[in-house]
Amino acid sequence: MTYKQVIISLMLLTALPGWIKGEGTRELEPNSTYGVTLRARYDPVLNSDEGGPFATPGCPDEYKLWVSIAEVGEKILFGFKKNSGFATVNVTLRDASGNIVFPTTPIPTSGTGYIDNYNQAVAGPVTINPAGYTPFECTPPAPGDYYVEFSWTIFGQTGNQQLRFYDITVVDAANQEKQGRLWSKNWQLLTVNNSNPFFGVMFPYTDDQITTRIDFNGMAPARFTIACNPTGCANTGDFISDRKSREGNYTYPAYKIFVNNPDEDLFPTGIVGGVDSVNVNNPCDGTVNINMYVNKQGMAEILLNINPLPGVQDEDVVLNDTVYTGNASTIEWNGLNGEGNLVPSGTTFNIEVTYINGLTHLPLYDVEYSAADWQGFIVDLIRPEGNKPLVFWDDRDVQGTTELNGCLDPGGCHSWNFDMGDENTINTWWFAVSTTLVPITIQYRRSETIPYNYILCEGDSVNVFGNWVSEPGVFSDTLTNFMGCDSISEVTVTVKPGPVIELGDDQVLCQGASTTLGAVVPNVASYVWNTVPPQPTPLGTDPTLTVNTTATYQVQITATNGCIRTDQVHVTAAPYINAQPIKHN
Fold first, then answer.
1. Which residue of 68, 112, 228, 515 has the fewest CB atoms within a 10 Å radius of its CB?
2. pLDDT, tens digit (0-9, with 9 covering 90-100), for 218-235
3. What fold is seen in the domain 507-573?
4. Fold match between 275-357+436-443 and 507-573?
């Protein structure tokens, strides 16, 4: 917040008697110069480009606007002013089962339930502040959670209405305000125009009961939703990928988000947990089990530092999971490095275990604008007491920067420009406390099967473990390696059929005669003819060869599967007899 903005806010504070009354516009619009409307919406698509549904009939519980009641006699006081338009917007209060506790009533344009101006919205109900507005009033029948529902006639499946001023305040039987009762897991808001900064504050309450405070510090988002969760843009189990900012609308609601510090009577303060012990079990099946004993539910981040260089390298593996009290929480690694390859048995590396409480991710979709001097979010730890949280982000996939060491700038952390925010989900995260344990060194082991493959042609043989093998089959031999695991050599012998060639018996030719050797053999790619011993140049490459001289002839044939066979035959040609004169007596 700039010096000028601080002065304006202080002027408003001093001008409004009973300032700390009401719950709604007061927190989300601390400066009347910059309007912030509550945006109710019908939408069947939870992650639509318009932000999904909010506070309308039929929307899931995570998208409802809730009020919590602690005891019988407490009252819900509420009022609104809708933006100008023709639609009649109704308000209904229901219990968690959907039963009506305040009947469907049109939001008025005057009188009871109507907030005329900003000062009235900030002052709150006249019941507790004479400067405020006259509220609707509902006394729920029992403690529990109730939700506020807005409805109107829509054409089609989608539509939205803006509430310019809004206040939902809980008071006890003596009309004393009970702050920290109004919450949703997926707020939907709208600044009056794209250039208006948002100086509202919100309080996420994690599943392990840690409360932090987000000061949006001048972010100018136009239409936006606020949802927080433990993983980021997705919850696939891939910790590194889930926390990265990404193109498109990727977010999901998980944590309750309040506009004030949650009432501690209903939403107690969690303890800062600790790690009792960690042990590692590496059976010969190749998995590694990291067993953690903790005294409070939290998150575990485990780095398998397979590449010994500092930082997280491509070969390293980061595992992330929830750990619980009681029995050991076991996180399993499958033996593959960060690139998906098997880590060799015998590799030595460190395992670094970090235990985290209050992990909070804030993914924001389509936030394109910001005040010129916007420095990012200001995040503080509210309950339990502790140090100011470090703020982290990873915007590499949207051409942005990365902060994995943690930002602690009191002026704000993680700002971005129009191009990066436009139609992208930008994620920011922090945690209340983390404890990194002394690295555990292991020599990774597993039973290994080393394959060997031999491909024979029919009639050939190979020596396998001391035996000559000519038939197909799988043969194995098991030894124990130096780490006590099996080392299995597995030999697979494949036998391919060989071609069949038969040149027949030796032949004797009469004087001047010839003979044709060989024949066409199926599935043969080549023929090579020669004599035994061979001549420098083959006699032919056709399936047959015609001969008329004495020699031993050999043919080598190569089948299409690569197998080779030879055969030979000896041909004897009768010699020529010279003419002899006939003598007469």
1. 112
2. 998 888 999 999 999 999
3. Immunoglobulin-like (2.60.40)
4. yes
